[in-house]
């Protein structure tokens, strides 16, 4: 009897324990389902791009500097100083009695640009909104002073410069056109971010067009190439934000048609009031540079000779012949031809590869930017750099008419390199708050 009773007690205990386990599992099931649901939902600090999930790190602001982009900038700038010295030493020694004349000036402006880049990169890029309107109005005002008053400084027959203190000739000169480029990038980034829901509506399109036309026209008066770049930056930024792409295909077909007509009969441009005589001459030279080999076609032909004589690996750094007074302004717009002559096709491909990697870093930051405003700032800078590189190489190879565009970070030009480095500071500021993949 005792054995049976003890077995019954053991069975009741076993049944009670199993029942308790079942009850506990039933209670835990809804909790486990709830935890699964919570895991499926992205955290408030997360962002989903396609099938990948990224996380925002606002508590570690400033610790995620894009060092790869920074190293690329430093390499391009150092290479630029080397090529400026190599291409300008002969002219500087004969004209200024100092072979380091141009490279020292370039290094000074580059140092100023690096300081601006580092300071801007440490700021929160959302602060740029406060300076957008003042920079835009200042750029339009400075371009008005250059074009419509006697304060503009004329160099080589082109009035594109102004003194640091307008009217005081003893102060250094700079190009307000470079400030216009930053102003257009900031204005379009702000307006696109603010009006993204109605970006394809006519009022928004008209507003953006109204903001683009005044600075673009003021620049086009004396600087066709910069006017094209500024217009291209605004149009491509809007294209990236727009949901309707059909309009851009229509514009592309229209542009191709106009270019074809101009190539067939460039004299049509003579009837346009904004086209200067020297610009029309450049278009005619583009069609046939050998028609005037000692005049207007001289620079283009000498640049092509330099590219052809470089071969695969070039003549060696510093061994260019065309820079010895044959190519005018060889350290400015035509510096890519000196690169091809001294370093060959291999060196030219390496330079293009560096710019391609820079564009890749821009795209990387755009896809991981915290908000649309930051993404559009980087997109504007990316478009500016890409257009300038493409136009410069196209001019040197005579693929398009000579427009006077510098090669970013490499060509000589104090204002250009300083403003470009300031733009890089804006990009690095956005990279400080990018989103990282989990």
Layout of helices and strands:
Layout: H1 2-40, E1 46-49, E2 52-56, H2 67-95, H3 101-121, H4 128-148, E3 152-155, E4 158-163, E5 173-174, H5 176-194, H6 202-220, H7 224-241, H8 246-264, H9 277-287, H10 298-310, H11 335-367, H12 372-396, H13 414-431, E6 435-437
Antiparallel strand pairs: 1-2, 2-6, 3-4, 4-5
Helix pairs in contact: 2-3, 2-11, 3-13, 4-5, 4-6, 5-6, 5-7, 5-12, 6-7, 7-12, 10-11, 11-12, 12-13
Keywords:
mainly alpha; 3-stranded antiparallel sheet; disordered N terminus; globular; 438 residues; single chain; 13 helices
Summary of the model, kept short:
With 438 residues, this protein is mostly helical. Helices cover 65% and strands 5% of the residues.
Q: Could you say which overall geometry the principal axes of the C-alpha atoms support?
A: globular
Low confidence ranges: 1-9, 11-15, 24-44, 56-61
Strand runs, count: 6
Mean pLDDT reading: 83
User: Helicity, in percent?
Assistant: 55-70%
Structural class label: mainly alpha
Strand order within the widest beta sheet: 1-2-6
What summary fits the major beta sheet? Answer: 3 strands, antiparallel
Radius of gyration: 30 Å
Gap between N and C termini: 66 Å
User: What amount of the residues lies in strands?
Assistant: 5-15%
Number of helices: 13
Kindly report the oligomeric state of this protein: single chain
Order of helices and strands: HEEHHHEEEHHHHHHHHHE
């Amino acid at each position: 009897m005792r054995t049976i009773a003890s077995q019954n007690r053991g069975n009741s205990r076993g049944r009670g324990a199993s029942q308790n386990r079942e009850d506990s599992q039933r209670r835990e099931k809804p909790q486990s389902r709830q935890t699964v649901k919570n895991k499926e939902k992205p955290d408030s600090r997360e962002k989903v791009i396609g099938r990948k999930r990224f996380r925002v790190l606002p508590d570690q602001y400033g610790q995620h500097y894009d060092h790869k982009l920074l190293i690329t900038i430093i390499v391009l700038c150092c290479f630029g100083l080397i090529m400026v010295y190599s291409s300008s030493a002969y002219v500087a020694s004969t004209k200024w009695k100092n072979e380091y004349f141009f490279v020292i000036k370039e290094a000074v402006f580059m140092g100023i640009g690096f300081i601006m880049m580092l300071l801007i990169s440490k700021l929160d890029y959302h602060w740029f909104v406060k300076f957008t309107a003042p920079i835009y109005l200042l750029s339009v005002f400075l371009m008005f002073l250059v074009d419509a008053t006697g304060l503009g400084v004329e160099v080589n027959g082109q009035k594109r410069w102004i003194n640091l203190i307008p009217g005081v000739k003893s102060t250094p000169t700079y190009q307000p056109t470079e400030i216009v480029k930053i102003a257009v990038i900031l204005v379009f980034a702000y307006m696109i971010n603010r009006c993204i829901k109605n970006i394809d509506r006519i009022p928004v399109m008209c507003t953006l067009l109204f903001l683009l036309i005044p600075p673009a026209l003021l620049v086009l008066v004396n600087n066709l190439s910069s006017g094209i770049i500024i217009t291209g930056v605004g149009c491509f930024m809007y294209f990236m934000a727009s949901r309707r792409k059909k309009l851009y295909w229509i514009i592309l077909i229209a542009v191709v048609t106009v270019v074809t007509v101009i190539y067939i009969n460039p004299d049509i441009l003579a009837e346009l009031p904004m086209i200067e005589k020297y610009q029309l001459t450049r278009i005619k030279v583009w069609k046939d540079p050998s028609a005037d080999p000692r005049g207007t076609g001289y620079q283009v032909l000498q640049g092509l000779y330099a590219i052809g004589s470089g071969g695969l690996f070039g003549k060696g750094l510093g061994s260019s012949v065309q820079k010895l007074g044959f190519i005018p302004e060889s350290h400015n717009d035509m510096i890519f031809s000196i690169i091809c002559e001294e370093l060959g096709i291999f060196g030219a491909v390496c330079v293009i590869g560096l710019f391609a990697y820079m564009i890749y870093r821009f795209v990387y930051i755009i896809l991981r930017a915290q908000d649309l405003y930051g993404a559009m700032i980087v997109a504007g800078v990316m478009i500016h750099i890409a257009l300038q590189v493409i136009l410069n190489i196209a001019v040197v190879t005579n693929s398009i008419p000579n427009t006077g565009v510098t090669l970013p970070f490499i060509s000589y030009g104090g204002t250009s390199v300083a403003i470009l480095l300031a733009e890089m500071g804006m990009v690095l500021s956005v990279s400080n708050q990018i989103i990282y993949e989990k």
